[in-house]
């Protein structure tokens, strides 16, 4: 459904419209906002979080920190998003319209390891509740869910919390997390995954009272399908009364891609997801008005120097990294940095998600810098990275270069032989095939040429690999020039037929 890294999705319906958000970790802007009218075709309409706070903590990349597993709800004519920052606590923002303006982040509960929060406003009683999970890496605790009473305005929690589901007491269960809280048919329901992102399953818990006791059941698991670890997402009901469940599947460098599964309520009152608890690969579309094909944007001509919603920085941005102007093309300043040898440490890399299907990525680049060592390029960025681009040499020439760094390496090294770029201009191309294997090529005006060996993209710990554009210069004084990127395109590649 969304074949890219829209990690830990949650969904809500308001009238005839469906909205989705996802984890954004340390990227800025964060908390993407997607819209659909048929649960199949989605467009990216904005972001709810313009900067990560406290700002000083996110001046440099913290790729696996920041925004974890948000919950999206609509209550009292407002949209609400709650998320856990594993190092700070539970945050909340809200807005009367999905496109904002959204409030600044409000810290609902401070604490280490408080993750995956989900609120519930009980329309029957007027009470408000919140459930969250725990990150062992920060708190020493995991595999349990804690419940709180919450102020109806979502501003604070009204008690110290109670352990409402202890995964250690359920035989075979581990890493219980990602709870989503609902009311249905007189029950409190918690839909929560367990078993880890690559091998886990989706659980359902129900109780007549919010604080329990809860009974549990596995309602979705891989079984004999190709969908590993199908879990963590949200339940939504269409206007006609159909039920659907959105969840992710961990796919290595591609990140956590989103699936849509049919859902119904069985005769025993428990949800049945997919085909009797196994994911389906093909199914009739939801009973909703047909919509034209749509997907989150990828291509960009950068009109006026502005970049589209699909792009995010790897940390809180500074003024001047991208310059607006009268024409088309992204003009990035060659930011001076002592970490120019390691793209993983740089906040000024403009990124978007790696496509989940075989694709070709292309962009044109021109380097406008006389600074020796200034460089700019197109990268595949993860725990390991590789990039192609241009660099100004000590002799004043501009060269095409191709570099990479392994996951354990502290700095990059050459992946191909430098080539003279007399006009300081190049067309860059990366073909991403099965298994996120990347083949690089370039065109200096004499036709495309391959460069270097195949590079297998790698994820971060929780984040899929990213495509990135950047411009850098060594430490020094004064303005170091800029680079211009034009005609960014991602096109599908037809799979190669077996011989």
UniProtKB/TrEMBL annotation:
Coiled coil: none
SUPFAM superfamilies named in the record: Arabinanase/levansucrase/invertase, Concanavalin A-like lectins/glucanases
InterPro entries, A to Z: ConA-like_dom_sf (IPR013320), GH43_C2 (IPR041542), Glyco_hydro_43 (IPR006710), Glyco_hydro_beta-prop_sf (IPR023296), Glycosyl_Hydrlase_43 (IPR051795)
Keywords associated with the record: Glycosidase, Hydrolase
One GO biological process term: carbohydrate metabolic process
Family: Belongs to the glycosyl hydrolase 43 family.
Protein name: Glycoside hydrolase 43 family protein
